[in-house]
Amino acid sequence: GNCSFVSGEASGAYALLAPAVVAPAPWRSLAIGAAVIYGTAIGVMRMAVGGHFATDIVFAGVFTALIVWLLVEQLKYVPSLQGVQPGNLRASSWKLQEGSLAEPAQE
Q1: CB within 10 Å: which end of the chain, N or C, has fewer?
Q2: How confident is the model at residue 36 (pLDDT cuts 50, 70, 90)?
């Protein structure tokens, strides 16, 4: 028989939720919407060629969103990120020191 499994292609596309949820506030809703639309479009293409069922795409979106949410929640426990709001996380302002995230670099 045909076994159903979560779509890796859709999961990869839905992974764009990760940068979307930490986008600056004015862009966040648009970025999240675009990531969901893109993931869904990739999933629909996989369904069109018979590669996956609709539930495979739905579960890919749900599981990926759950993983992104858990990771973003864990950022609250990184001491050097205490009080930093999503959208203010700029990689260029953080430096790696002795294997851990250090205070922001002075600009």
Answers
A1: N
A2: very high
